[in-house]
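G., the chain you wanted modeled:
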Amino acid sequence: MSARHRPVGWTPAKRAYDLVLLAGVVGFLLAFLRLAPQFGDPALALDGQSLAMKAYGSCAFLLLSLALAIGPLARLDARFLPLLYNRRHLGVVAFLVALSHALEVLGWHFNYSPTPPFVAMLATDTLFVPLGVAALLILFALAATSHDFWLSFLTPAAWKALHMAIYPAYALAIGHVAFGALQDGVAPALTLVVLGAAAGVVALHLLAALRGRRADAAAARAGSSAWIAVGRADAVPEGRAVIVHPPEGEPVAIFRHAGRLSAVTNLCPHQNGPLGEGRIVDGCITCPWHGFQYRPEDGCAPPPYTEKLATYRLALDGDTLLLDPRPNPPGTRVEPLPAPSPAGPAPEPPFFIGWARGLAQGLRGVTGASAVAVGLGLPALGLLLGVLANDPADAAFATVPGQAVLSDLPEPVSLRGVVVAGPYPLLHLPGTPGRTLLLASDGKLGAPAEVRALHGRHVAAEGAILRRGSIEMLVLGAPLVPVEDAPAAAAPTAEPLGRWRIPGEICDGKCAAGGMRPGTGVGHRACATLCLDGELPAVFVATRPVAGHAFLLLGDVRGGPALPALRHLIGRRVTLEGEVERIGDILVFRAAPS
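Predicted structure as tokens:
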């Protein structure tokens, strides 16, 4: 509804609002996903899924913080009211970006294993996953009921109560980030952004609440009798209102129109908008949020509309205006009170209800600055977070059959070596000093079971090589082929290096070797669990290098695979003790569960 009873369509103001918002979001994602890798870690550009998860997740959190900041900003300064008009669009965009983050996680962290992705996600024992799922479900409910149909169907009170769930969703989102990405300690910029955004939202709400509390205290000091004094009658400007906070009940808006005063509830029945911040347009009180209108003398919307407001009685005691804080039934006519006019014309404050073609002069500065902050600030934050979203262990992809070399590693597309069966299948390339690679299948699966039967055999292999630090993995693109006429070459023997007590983290060999960035940490625990359940090699990522190696192949004390005995420790910071031995150019850590 508009002031002249015309439907509100996609006006220039609404289009500008949404275009600025979409430009900021697209700019953030492009800066994070495309521009940042050129300035930060180039290897990140090769892992689009990991980078997309970070980009969508951080963008959704910032949009949610912005949505929660607009309300108190508008309470503190009416010049922010234009931002409030389309806040629901901002909330829906925040949900869509958060959904994109969830789909990336579902399609990458929880995919490519025998376990269905949804089952894997719901079965995880990592706390941050259910926190994120709960936040997303709340945002879905809010986005799905954002249309005015649901406002009418649920009633404004129920709709408002439902949409207050944005605050629990925000708390869950903070917990999701805190128990996930922030615990890994590799994203200081993200930590500062999360803490800064959360602190800003809390500070704005505290300031707005403090202003409201002061108004309530002033009303309480005026007394709690049947009639309360609300100030001088000539303090109410023509065409505008003053807002009164009685000791009990809801706020009241006292309007002056044609030299007479009328009082109605301050809450618009459409969305509980602040009527007292609106003004008289065409003889009707006009809500500043969406332009809904009501007659000041009886609180009724003009025909054909049927909304009604509660009205209040007013009286004069000399120059002092008195209010009866007991509301009349909605739609009750109360004869407007003639009252002294203001000493001089009041300055015309800014006013905006969304359907106007342009903004009042007083609103343009704040609105323009806000547009610049969103349109340029979000891409700048995306670039900063993207540049600092580096891979701390310097992973690199080598050659994939049929593709160009993705790094400067001179890896062949096909290899010949000797199979080593345990604790996980390995491929040792003879030479001085020789190289030893972990073996894996595509997805979250270890090498086929028949590979162990080739222990000590010379084979030809082809596939993609992942490398991170001192560890290499060959992801097999075809079955191993025994080479019958190969020169004799024995499998490397284990060289004992003594007993060690080592702090670090249990991870899967594929992600540790570069399949995920980062391939460690609490946020990666669910993915690592699926990988290790698929019999990928277990790797112990040491806090400090052991004999020059930060990555150790992890086995049990009997020389077999580490799982299932150590499964409950996946992704956690632990200290293990056991024997360390060298096989080729990798270290094997045979650790006990205790």
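Confidence is low (pLDDT under 50) at residues 1-8, 354-358, 392-410.

Shout if anything looks off.
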